[in-house]
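ingest -> fold -> write
write: protein_1
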Amino acid sequence: MRKAAALAAAAVVAAAAAIAVRQRLREAKRWARVAAVLSDLQERCAAPAARLLQVSDAMDVEMRAGLASEDGSKLKMLVTYVDSLPSGDEKGLFYALDLGGTNFRVLRVQLGGKEQRVIKQESVGELFDFIAAALAKFVASEGEDYHLPEGTLRQLGFTFSFPVKQTSISSGTLIKWTKGFAIEEMVGKDIVAELNEAIKRQGLVMKVSTLVNDTVGTLAAGRYVDDDTMIAVILGTGTNAAYTENAHAIPKWHAPLPMSGDMVINMEWGNFKSAHLPLTEFDQALDAESLNPGEQNYEKLTSGMYMGEIVRRILLQMAQEAALFGDNIPPKLETPYILKTFHMLVMHHDVSPDLETVGIKLKEIFQIESTSRKTRKLVVDVCEVISTRGARLAAAGIHGILKKLGRATDSPDKRRTVIAVDGGVYKYYTFFSECMERTLSDMLGEDLAPSVVIKPANDGSGLGAALLAASYSQYLQADEDY
């Protein structure tokens, strides 16, 4: 009996050991598949120095082609009719509307010239009748700290962060929506005329005096505090760039234009496309299923609207092919755009020993109850691959603009160039912004890098619109026909 019992016990132990071995082998194979997917992803998302220079060259070429003819490039290279950036001398009370990718804000700014600069600034965050109603409510809250000469017309700078073909500093027609907006009846309409009519319906004594893109507003805000600001970049829900171009470099088909001086160009660089961009099947699938297939390729690699979604798609494939989160695929993981880039950056910035924040976010977003530290680390690795690619490509785009301006190669005078940058991705995603700045510095080289300065321009788009309204102000009388 004892011998039989011993044999039985040994058999149980052997069976348990065999099961444990099979489990370990299964686990090893699972992680080998996960590692293979990650390794393949890292290879295909890689943006080494040589490729970045190719992207920079392509950006330069496309900029020139977009300036040369209306349909010469994916880059719209839109003339903004902003040929007078703020000098610091502006005085008075001005309003601004800022309609961007995720927010709508109304701003009020009291300017006091070079000595006092921005005396006071307020904003309220709440399409055109709704905007005008919010604007009327905001104007009614005007306090004693704001001063408008009696009988004068309030002037409004309008930041409209979508592609617009401008016909003057205060008029332009919507070309198309981006960043998920899709109000088709607005396409082709004069945006300012529509808004002015809505303002009149509210009984407001106010007129839109300037229409600017958010990136142009950021450039104006940057120039207001630093005369060397030549370029502005938005890295937020969407992405775009603007810069000052010598009027002589703008072909005559853009007429009427001033014969000399500088003109701000709105690049609409989110639509940049090049064979040198490192695309994966995840990017291609996202593009195919988006509202604008084949458009905004660069934006879909570098902006806040899309990076989190790319990470979700990668994690879903890992769950399907390698059971990353167990044998059952979490249903929430299959929901498009449920993972925001903000969630991505919160997980990526987790420095706790056990990556506790990653586990909390996976539970909150995907209802994944428990994960190992190894799984959480893998999620962080995926976030790093996608954010690194986006940051390095953003740096290459900026380098392309510098090259177009003749400021990406060494010269005896080493002219100082300031780049104003705004947007939630740049502002809050520290890894992204630091990687972008480091990459640009490497591309410029140690001799030239110190002459190129990146400056944050917090809330630059709205403030810039108000500043441009001031720059072009004539303080019209309230009883004039408007």
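write: protein_2
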Amino acid sequence: MDPNAFYFRGSKDSKETSISPPPPQRTGSASSLHKSGHVIAHSHRSSFAENLRGLPPSPRNQRHPSFTQAAIQELLNHPPASRQHNPRFAGRDWREVAIGELVSKDEVAWVEMDTTVEDATMALLKNTSSKVVIVREDATSSIPVSTFDYNDLNAYILVVVGLAHPSEDLVELYDTVATKAQARVSIPLRDVQPIFRKESLVTLEGDEDLAKAIEVLGSGVHRALVTNHDGEVIGVLSQLKLIEFFWNEGVNFRVIDDLYPRLLRDVGVGSHQIIAINADSPLTEALNLMNQEGLSSVAVVDNGLNVVGNISSADVRHLTNAASFPLLQNSCMHFISVILTEQGAEKGKDSFPVFHVNPYSTLAHTVAKLVATHSHRMWIVESASPSPSAPGTPSLGPTVFVPTPSSSQTSLSGGHFPSVPPASTLPGSYLSGRLIGVVTLTDILNLFARSTGLNPSDPSEQRARRRRSSSSSIRPSIESTRASLDIRR
């Protein structure tokens, strides 16, 4: 394999394609591709994905007819609320369920400190269940020392292409990594740990009950490693897995199940502070924003602040082959369109962004969407009052809006992607609404914990620590924003 190059392997008869990173830029200058005028050359061999383009005919030719607008709106307003009950939890109090019952050792993937970033990336792409690989010192060790996930992959890609913004003490390291990547020198995970700025590992014993898990994850910790009495990792418990459990088994847990029919505005969940990015901004702006602010996803909005999509750190998996490299300097809307097109090709029907709810959505509606889309958050949009007697939609500002001047927008040649219509013409622009807030898995788990008499920590403390760990940011933190609409230009 070519060291320090992201690639996908196709069939054994297909060619193996790698990305040659562009010449590294001085990362400390906070320069970007669109500002420097740098253009990435595409003299690579055809990738497996590229060779498939046009053969067979486009899946759109065999797709099912698209829903009418009314049918789409009905689906978004009332998503399927099916639950997959597990009979072994029937009739049990959730406090009697052990953490170890929710995890599986099959979800644990290991790499070593001396594993190259590229091999760690391939292991991450294969581990679709927990979306994380655990890092140990060497193959003889059973003690975890770190993790590698899509946030880390995002940070590494930004360094390789010269778009990261390091603090002064890390400029030399960032330049060294970018130079080695250009020279195709293998880089082990050990050498790039400071780039990732990892949080402390959180472990829970498998025989502890869920009360401990819901307090920890409801305090803002995204995942915990589950161990046995010998300290051996037997699984990974994420916020989403815990939410899925309480959704599927909620009928057995009366206190939590009684919360589901209530409206979001009545249960008091959701943040008053949000960060969004304009649909016409380059994708690199979104990736940098997530990395700098310690976020796992950002809302994508049009010029009217209507939600038209969502970009998460997990979406960087679409950027790990040569054919996808031009996406970095195309727009966020272009990237969303490509993702939806690929999903449509896989599922045989058109895909639509469904990452929004409104203050009058029920908690059940919100959780059903989170579980169905495997998302970490839902964006709250304005909605008309459901009845003349109901109070108006509450204001949840401030919104931090990150547009990019049209003069700085650049598209790279050589991409094999469909043209993208204006954001205002996509389904999300008229099926969603104006962005006013966000509700996360942390918010919901915190609500569950408090409703059952537990005392989770304030999630804002964990969020603040996460943003402080991304101290290389050259953007002001959301914590210092004014209590009004802040449009950055």
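write: annotation protein_2
The chain has two domains: 94-248, 262-487.
Residues 94-248 form a domain with the CBS-domain fold (CATH 3.10.580.10).
pipeline exit 0
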